Amino acid sequence: xxxxxxxxxxxxxxxxxxxxxxxxxxxxxxxxxxxxxxxxxxxxxxxxxxxxxxxxxxxxxxxxxxxxxxxxxxxxxxxxxxxxxxxxxxxxxxxxxxxxxxxxxxxxxxxxxxxxxxxxxxxxxxxxxxxxxxxxxxxxxxxxxxxxxxxxxxxxxxxxxxxxxxxxxxxxxxxxxxxxxxxxxxxxxxxxxxxxxxxxxxxxxxxxxxxxxxxxxxxxxxxxxxxxxxxxxxxxxxxxxxxxxxxxxxxxxxxxxxxxxxxxxxxxxxxxxxxxxxxxxxxxxxxxxxxxxxxxxxxxxxxxxxxxxxxxxxxxxxxxxxxxxxxxxxxxxxxxxxxxxxxxxxxxxxxxxxxxxxxxxxxxxxxxxxxxxxxxxxxxxxxxxxxxxxxxxxxxxxxxxxxxxxxxxxxxx
Length: 413
Description:
Blueprint: H1 4-13, E1 20-24, E2 37-38, E3 48-49, E4 53-56, E5 66-74, E6 88-92, E7 104-107, E8 111-113, E9 121-124, E10 134-135, E11 146-148, H2 156-164, E12 169-173, E13 177-183, E14 187-188, E15 199-200, H3 203-214, E16 217-224, H4 228-235, E17 243-247, H5 258-262, E18 272-277, E19 281-282, E20 288-292, E21 295-300, H6 304-323, E22 333-337, E23 348-357, E24 363-367, H7 376-381, E25 384-388, E26 400-405
Parallel strand pairs: 5-6, 13-16, 13-17, 14-15, 17-21, 19-23, 22-24
Antiparallel strand pairs: 1-12, 2-11, 3-10, 4-6, 4-7, 5-9, 8-9, 18-20, 20-21, 22-26, 23-24, 23-25, 25-26
Helix pairs in contact: 1-6, 3-6
């Protein structure tokens, strides 16, 4: 069985970032930049006032009180056309261009004005050294500056910056198009439960949610029965997709047909070529990675918990690689066990667990007693996975362990 780290490395090495496409800045939230976003203007374009007040020459208010003559105004978006001379002041508002000749702003509350009209005398009660409340041209950014690097998922802050930099269109990596295929005679859609032996399909919906949350587009190919021809027919719908993800049919049972049906030599170039099968992990051992024709394929186990755990460990990094993000193992965190654990076997274990703040500020984690891979209620209740490496010895309450947080993962965009 292949170790988890090697399996992930082989998956990622077979994938590459997708081509770029242009989207309007108003539709770029959550997308990944395919190239740096550079400023198309200087901000502020000229020296501007940071406050409401009066633009003055610092030398004229070095000694206070000082009496000056108001000669004009400079609102935001406007400009005083002249050059400020000795003993003169210009009424200015936040964002207004600083007049030529002025080098400081005095606050309006530090000025007594006899009238709000040009030609009126004003008395400055507090001095202002040169540069006071002046925002210099280019304080924020200059034309050509990189505001957002390539390979970054755009936040609301990034969108605001791009707009401020006068960038109307952004080059982003195309969304991965992921075809999802469920398998099994026993699988039915939610709301279609007709037999007590039927199993409601949850995997397709969970996988589609993962794909969309990471930034891809999910295409549901449907549910393939345990029939070779039907499985091949539905799998053919993955042509043109960037990735095919199957759930179920990856084990060795009589009805686990994915490898047998899709790997048939009669399919020629469209046949499944398996890169590896079986991972030394729990849950998720019967995982397949290969190519169905030209389309990379990730075959996940049918048990619902196994599907979601494998999506966390393998599918998410695969999508991130195709999006041009820095893909790799999900970053673990450290926590403290609240209970004792028995020794682990040769498979890397991902134990569903809940956590809470401990008395020393570290996370205190409690794995569920039952770790059955069919129990979706436990997975939904969990907020993390306790990651136990192969042959991990017995652990005692208070020992430090690695966890993979779940709550701050897929929906953090």
